[in-house]
Amino acid sequence: MKNIFFRRRSHLHPPSYSDLQRRCWNRIGIRRSFYFLSARRQENPNVSRNPQHPSQKTILRAFLAPVLSLDDKPKLNKLQAIGTIATAQADYMRVIVQDVPESDYGDDDKIGVELLCVVRKLLKKIGRTVLVGDKVLVDKVDWIDRRAKIINVFDRVSEILEPPVANVDHLLILFSLDQPKIDPFTLTRFLVEAESIGIRVTIALNKCELVTQEEVESWKIRLRSWNYEPLFCSVGTKVGLDEIAFTLQNQTSVIVGPSGVGKSSLINILRSSYGGAIKHEEVFKPVSFFILGLMYDGQKKKNKKKWFEDQSVGQVSHRNGLGKHTTRNVTLLPLCGGGYLADTPGFNKHKLLKVTKQKLPLCFPEIRKMVEGGKCEFKNCSHLGVYGCAVTGDWERYHYYLQLLEEIRIDEESQLKKYGTKREGGVSCHMGEKGVEQAKPQIDPKKYRRESRKTMKQTMMKELEF
Ligand SMILES: Nc1nc2c(ncn2[C@@H]2O[C@H](COP(=O)(O)OP(=O)(O)OP(=O)(O)O)[C@@H](O)[C@H]2O)c(=O)[nH]1
Ligand SMILES: [Zn+2]
Prior knowledge:
Elements: H1 2-12, H2 17-25, H3 30-43, H4 56-64, E1 81-89, E2 92-99, E3 114-119, H5 121-125, E4 135-142, E5 147-153, E6 159-160, E7 165-166, E8 170-176, H6 184-197, E9 200-206, H7 213-225, E10 231-232, H8 241-248, E11 252-256, H9 263-273, H10 280-283, E12 289-291, E13 294-296, H11 301-308, E14 331-334, E15 340-343, H12 365-370, H13 398-419, E16 427-431, E17 437-441, H14 453-465
Parallel strand pairs: 3-5, 8-9, 8-11, 9-10, 11-15
Antiparallel strand pairs: 1-2, 1-4, 2-3, 4-5, 6-7, 12-13, 14-15, 16-17
Helix pairs in contact: 2-3
The chain binds guanosine-5'-triphosphate and zinc ion.
InterPro entries: G_CP_dom (IPR030378), P-loop_NTPase (IPR027417), Ribosome_biogen_GTPase_RsgA (IPR004881), RsgA_GTPase_dom (IPR010914)
GO molecular function, one term: GTPase activity
Keywords: GTP-binding, Nucleotide-binding
């Protein structure tokens, strides 16, 4: 009834631009905000008819939650603040405050406070994801209960998928020389994944006290031939930790590596004894709240555990010498230098998610060096050693390259068979406006659609025949 009334009235007296703008911001709902578009169309009839013009959804998106660039400084009202998401659990996000509105009374004590936030539902409706590491605008801040609501997300500089973290500047790939032993092929997988995202990489090799000095030296030479400069450390004997603390300063870093190599142990030692990191308690000021049935109270030391304790350190399995996956959630731990450090769950087998056949050669610094300046004669060459190709086979990781290429080929083929398109993340290029090349993501249309019973039956019959 209300809607009909609204429609009729709006038909007779089309609402003004600013009137609708206010209604949108008052969260009346997406449906009604389309009235804003019709009002806009009345003012400018070409708005949606011009094929060059952005779609209605794009306008709506831009209007309801305008994209903020990282350098934007939106004017904050008294109840707003800007912060970074440190961790996410269920529907709650923990945001560390970085900026508050200017006031006559110094508000420095609010900087660094941790707020428990929910996300504005509208962001999900218009397809804006919110990840750990995102810079966000929060509203309705309750400084006493330390609660707020995330109402907008700033643009991302980078995004990694596994684990999902935004705005990562640096990846620290940690392996151990022993227990579990470093596997060059697994290390190559981690490196290829990191190179494909285009984030700066540092390799650190832990537990160096468990092997001889000769072994350490041989790994140094080996990794240099791969065009990487490794760092060596031992959390057990506290060797080489200063250098690692130095590389982590002033940026958001994520530690990745197989399970059991000592990621959590390294984080704990950096937080407890190195100037590069500060204690959680100094930043995350305790709050009282009720989450997932767990009463959390800043006054009760027993319950402080959940968010302020050290990263839990696991055991190395006696049977296979591999770690046993101790770390579960991604959490950004604030560092003194202004940056953050995140621990991630360890993966024993790393699957290349977004690397395509075309992208793979660019993920090997050895190949990049060989084809520098367009020395390879062929366009889109897979560098398989054909005559005229600049890439030779006389480097250590060449067979890993071939192995990964084969793996991606099989994966792409099976996806093509299954869904009728190549792996998601593939990009097709086509000529756009004014001869500018535009990239279009190849999204799989059938992924979320169930196979029909007829097709299932036919496939089964086919399989039985052969
Ligand atoms: N000998 C030796 N053991 C270490 C060293 N660093 C860590 N460890 C041990 O390695 C085991 C695994 O450490 P974690 O820190 O849990 O490993 P992780 O990489 O975080 O493992 P996940 O959480 O499963 O990903 C623990 O028993 C640590 O005590 C080291 O430098 N030398
Ligand atoms: Zn080539």
